[in-house]
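Cross-check.
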Amino acid sequence: MLAVEVSGLEVRADVYGGAGSVCGTVLYRMTTEAGARRRANVLRRWARRGTPVTYVRNGESASLVDEQAFMASRIGSGSST
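Predicted model, tokenized:
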């Protein structure tokens, strides 16, 4: 994660990495400014800690996911998906 910026209801996360050294931006549009601040705080914490994230896209929707926490939750829940 290179940078995280908040502007009103929008949170912009600039990211770089992966096998192809991809550089891009994920834009979150939140419903409240408090929600935008919370999302930005999570993203900034990931950036500070160097948390590996995965870009996930489903149709027109996209997000960043803490891949280690996701995998730990799947293993802990006994889920196969």
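The first helix runs from residue 33 to 49. The first strand starts at residue 3 and ends at 7. Passed to J.P. for a second look.
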